[in-house]
Specification:
With 343 residues, this protein is of the alpha+beta class. 62% of the residues lie in helices and 8% in strands. A 6-stranded antiparallel beta sheet has the order 1-6-2-3-4-5. Helix 2 packs antiparallel against helix 6 and helix 8 packs across helix 9. The chain is elongated, with a radius of gyration of 36 Å.
């Protein structure tokens, strides 16, 4: 006979929990439905955020440039050391061959000097300092052994130095990869923000940038000074680059970052200056008053010296601003001026 049991009723506690959960879900749904849609940032807000990202990217770019310069310098030094070691090893082999010939001659005439035999089978450092060994050698043998000893020490030092520089080079390459990734990340964020603008907003920003550049150019054209000497020649070279795109890590002749433009311009005038803005800040005499600046002087901006341009006269600077812009004139007052540098 089938059993007829009453279904088990949910406990009062369980009913309370379920009821509370259901009420919360309904309230949440209502809040979501009534919530105001998130406001899209204005064109000016986007511009401010993008400018900040460009500034951060430029800081990283200058560090990247410094690491690249260090890498190139290390590679040259390592190559030179390796060449010296190779030549030194050849000299050492020749010295040893000479001692071997000397030992063979001694053997044919009645036996090898014990100290020479010892040298040919081990490091001479262990016995050259002993007077008893020195007394058993001829003046010619002593001189030959000393040359070998000096050459061995020199080679050991150069090999050690090359090894340290190779380690430094590996660390520098790691830093390069890190800085490159940082720059690309900042630029990617900036591009994402710019892509959120409408075509009309983008056009308005571009027009504003063009208007600012036009006003700066007009101010420069009002001036009469064209610069003189090497500084004037560097400025003239930079003028020829107006309109060239900003590309991080680039130093001409068709694209530039800020310190790439200034170092390239001075190179055209026959003057070598450091590659990064931070190093360029210490490349000459500092000028703290804007009224004392001359055309072609370097102009350093921001407290950490991460931006540099060339003074153009009329309170204007010629520089490579940031990604998305081109080499152009701009008012010094648009950036935090630190000082000028006269090369």
């Amino acid at each position: 006979m089938a059993s007829h049991r009453r279904p088990k009723q949910p406990s009062r506690t369980r009913v309370t929990v379920l009821t509370t959960a259901a009420a919360a879900a309904v309230a949440l749904s209502a809040n979501v439905a009534n919530a105001a849609p998130s406001e899209k940032p204005s064109k000016d807000e986007v511009k401010a955020k993008v400018d900040k990202l460009y500034e951060e990217a430029e800081k990283a770019t200058e560090k990247l440039d410094g690491a690249k310069e260090k890498q190139e310098k290390l590679q040259k030094e390592i190559s030179s050391l390796q060449d010296n070691v190779a030549r030194g090893q050849e000299d050492l082999n020749n010295l040893r061959d000479g001692l071997g010939t000397m030992a063979s001659a001694q053997y044919r005439t009645g036996g090898i000097d014990p100290s020479v035999a010892l040298f040919l089978s081990s490091d001479p450092d262990s016995y050259l300092d002993k007077a008893s060994a020195m007394d058993q050698l001829s003046a010619q043998q002593v001189e030959s052994l000393k040359k070998v000893q000096e050459k061995q020490r020199s080679l050991a030092q150069q090999r050690s130095e090359a090894s340290e520089k190779l380690k430094d080079l590996a660390d520098t390459r790691t830093e390069l990869a890190k800085k490159k990734k940082e720059v690309q990340g900042k630029l990617g964020e900036a591009q994402k923000l710019l892509n959120s603008l409408t075509a009309k907003e983008k056009a308005a920003l571009a027009a504003k940038e063009q208007e600012r550049a036009t006003r700066a150019t007009e101010r420069v054209n009002l001036g009469t000074s064209k610069g003189s000497g090497r500084a004037g020649a560097a400025f003239s070279a930079a003028q020829g680059a107006i309109g060239s795109p900003y590309v991080y890590g680039a130093s001409g002749p068709s694209s530039f970052d800020c310190s790439g433009l200034t170092s390239w311009a001075y190179a055209q005038a026959g003057v070598s200056i450091p590659r990064t803005s931070e190093a360029q800040a210490n490349a000459g005499t500092r000028i703290y008053s804007q009224s004392d600046l001359q055309v072609g002087d370097l102009v350093i901006f921001y407290g950490d010296f991460h931006h540099v341009g060339l003074y153009a006269g009329g309170g204007q600077v010629l520089h490579a601003p940031h990604t998305g812009a081109v080499v152009r004139y701009e008012a010094i007052g648009n950036m935090p001026f630190q000082f000028g540098v006269r090369i």
